[in-house]
Design brief:
The chain has 360 residues and is of the alpha/beta class. 59% of the residues lie in helices and 9% in strands. α8 packs antiparallel against α10 and α8 runs parallel beside α11.
């Protein structure tokens, strides 16, 4: 930037913060910095500020604030356009300037810069180099993108709904919460099939010790399957809810009119497929060899009920916690797990007692 009294620079865009291997690296401010901003020296007047804004081709977000610099391009503060319009046309930019302490250096972490911009409710935040020279700005909309990306990284570690790159997260969240049912069904089913296979493997371990069990050994084999599938589904639902609320894709005012019904539909679809798969495996693995043909329907219906229940609880319980004023992120999963485990096992053993003719 030169020492001209008035300067308008144009954007270089936003750089990626993910390396070639998909591993998140240090994210300095300059990666999201723009150099499309308005700046003028401190000896200029309010009239000069207004004239510069009038002649600018930049959008309203950027022109709402004009940075103030000295003759060596060192940052002195900023002037809001509204303040310039209300002031005497001949008052100097130096007198109008505020926010001399509101800036970040270009090697600072971009998330911290975004949070500062959010807290102070500014349209832009100046970015300085090591010599305190004005190097660029962070725009408010870019800051919100940074916070969304950081939230995405944290929330998707909770459940197996895919390892998503930052550039895809917002789009995929919209598709999970607002698009066709085919997308959330396909994404979640793939990982739940892995969980189903893992649950069956745990059942094989229980089978290895069937000599210790004198009654209902076949039912005991499938207890881990029922509990694990419900747990995975509940965690997925609560994660999608938390992220959807954070990004504004889930609107609480239409929670019962749309979002809970949508999640119920996804749960029915997932429950039907997983219940059918689990019931068939149970029938051929334990039901047929042990002359218990109804074991397959018991497992299938129990899986269906557990999955649908977990889907609904995964959305409903965080919503209740939000309404009560509690933090739903750490609070929802323990409630979901407790209610889901109790209900799923109650359904499971009740169905077994009824369909298999065993007295409870």
């Amino acid at each position: 930037m030169t020492n001209n009294s008035m300067t308008e620079i144009h954007s270089v865009g936003i750089a990626s913060a993910i390396d070639a291997h998909g591993i998140t690296t240090h994210n300095p401010v300059h990666e999201v910095m723009h150099d499309d901003y308005l700046a003028m020296t401190s000896d200029k007047t309010a009239a000069d500020i207004i004239e510069q804004v009038r002649n600018s081709s930049l959008d309203a977000q950027v022109t709402a604030v004009v940075c103030v610099i000295d003759s060596d391009n060192r940052y002195q503060g900023f002037v809001r356009l509204a303040e310039a319009l209300r002031s005497d046309p001949q008052v100097s930019a130096k007198e109008l300037a505020t926010g001399a302490d509101l800036y970040v250096y270009n090697d600072e972490d971009r998330e911290q810069a975004a949070r500062l911009l959010q807290r102070r409710d500014l349209p832009i935040l100046p970015v300085l180099d090591e010599q305190h020279h004005l190097a660029g700005i962070i725009r408010f909309d870019d800051a919100m993108d940074v916070l969304e990306e950081e939230a995405s990284e944290d929330v998707y570690k909770k459940a197996g709904v895919g390892s998503l790159t930052r550039a895809q997260e917002i789009v995929r969240s919209e598709r999970l919460t607002q698009g066709s049912l085919k997308y959330p069904f396909g994404v979640r089913l793939a990982f739940l099939c892995v969980a189903l296979a893992g649950g069956m493997a745990v059942g094989g371990v229980v089978e290895h010790f069937e000599g210790v069990l004198e009654a209902l050994v076949a039912l005991a084999i499938f207890v881990p399957v029922i509990m694990d599938m419900g747990g995975n589904v509940g965690t997925q639902s609560s994660t999608i809810f938390a992220r959807g609320v954070a990004l504004g894709h889930i609107r609480l005012e239409r929670f019962f009119r749309y979002h809970i019904l949508r999640e119920l539909a996804v749960g029915v679809m997932l429950g039907a497929v997983l219940g059918l798969a689990g019931g068939l495996i149970a029938y051929f693995w334990q039901g047929l060899p042990n002359d218990m043909p109804m074991l397959g329907p018991v497992i299938g219906l129990s899986l269906f009920a557990a999955v649908v229940l977990a889907c609904v609880l995964g959305f409903l319980l965080p919503w209740v916690l939000l309404k009560l004023g509690f933090d739903h992120a750490p609070g929802a999963d323990p409630f979901i797990t407790t209610i889901k485990d109790f209900s799923a096992l109650l359904i499971y053993f009740s169905l077994a007692a009824w369909l298999l003719g065993i007295e409870a």
